[in-house]
Amino acid sequence: MPRQAREVSRSGCYHVTLRGAGRRSLFEDDEDREAFVRRLRNMVDDGILLYAWCLMDNHVHLLIGDCGGGISSPLHRLTTSFALCFNGRHSHVGPVFQGRFASFPVETDAHFLETIRYIHTNPKSLGAAAPDYRWSSYREYVEGEDLCETARALDMLGGVEGFQRFHRVNGDIELVDLTGYRRRLSDAEVRDIASSIFGEGFLGSLPLMAKEERDVGIRKLGRLGASSRQIERLTGIGRSIVRRACGG
Predict the structure, then answer these.
(1) pTM
(2) Around 71, how many Cα atoms within 13 Å sit in the side-chain half-sphere?
(3) Selection from 199, 197, 194 nearest residue 233 by Cα
(4) Which long-range contacts (CB under 8 A, 24 or more apart) does 43-48 make?
(5) Cβ atoms < 10 Å from Cβ of 87
(6) Cross-referenced InterPro entries, in alphabetical order (predicted)?
(7) Main-chain phi, psi angles of 5, to 5 degrees
(8) What is the pLDDT of residues 42-83, one digit of tens each?
(9) Whether the Cβ atoms of residue 28 and residue 119 lie closer than 8 Å to each other
(10) What is the CB neighbour count within 10 angstroms for residue 88?
(11) Cα separation of 212 and 245, whole Å?
(12) How many Å apart are CA 197 and CA 15, to the nearest integer?
């Protein structure tokens, strides 16, 4: 069966995930992590814009921009080079990464900002707060390192202090007004956003959640630009429930 063609982002921006084969760890130690970051820098030198990154134990999140040459070749060089390094260091035989990388188009500024926050707060599953986690781009935004392109997000968020506030979210409290960064989304874009930030199957699982968790999910979709009608249509949740959850 031929591979399904990747969806092309009109903005040239993608949320990319790389996963270890068989869910195995991609990094045995900090030397592996440093080797991967060096290859990220090579990818930037190849002409890819890097907006955010985070190295977890068995997967990697990247938010990247295509400057016109496509993202597949630079990502292929990154994964191939790292796999050779990993196999050589650890006498590992076989694939290091699980198939092709996954990519989700990021078309709106609201989705762009939420993806950055999602990537930087991923280490909470390891018990680490974003400012304390070494292996992400969070500190680049705060301390001014030069691997990532930070100006776009910092301009939207009002500088470093706004960036830090944006990441200090407690439950459902939204500390940044994203209204100015929204536009009308298609149903396909809402599906992509939900999959990119909240995971595959999020829309289908939303009606099965407990009321409080469900309503939080509805509000998150609304803040990203999905209309009440779209949320109703894509999840099967009644319009009155959607509107109450969104406060409308």
Answers:
(1) 0.76
(2) 25
(3) 194
(4) 43/74, 43/75, 43/77, 43/78, 44/147, 46/73, 46/74, 46/77, 47/74, 48/74
(5) 14
(6) Transposase_17, Transposase_17_sf
(7) -65, 140
(8) 999 888 999 999 999 999 999 999 878 789 999 999 999 999
(9) no
(10) 9
(11) 9
(12) 9
Is-contact 36 54, C-beta < 8 A?
Answer: no
Over residues 25-54, the mean pLDDT reads: 95
Query: What integer pLDDT is reported at residue 109 of this predicted model?
Result: 86
H or E element, residue 102:
strand 102-105
Strand partners, 54: 61, 136
Instruction: Kindly tell me the burial class for residue 94, based on how many C-beta atoms sit within 10 Å of its own C-beta (0-12, 13-18, 19 or more).
Output: exposed
The H-assigned helical ranges of 63-125 are 72-90, 109-121
Distance between CA 172 and CA 220 in Å, rounded? 8
Residue that has been written with the tokens 């959850």 in this structure: 245
DSSP, res 178: -
Measured distance CA(198)–CA(232) in Å, rounded: 17
The C-alpha atoms of residue 27 and residue 162 are separated, in whole angstroms, by 32
Instruction: Indicate the helix (H) or strand (E) that contains 161.
Output: helix 160-167
> DSSP 3-state assignment of 214?
helix
Token pair listed for 178: 């994203």
CB atoms within 10 A of CB 72: 13
Cβ count near 152 (within 10 Å): 16
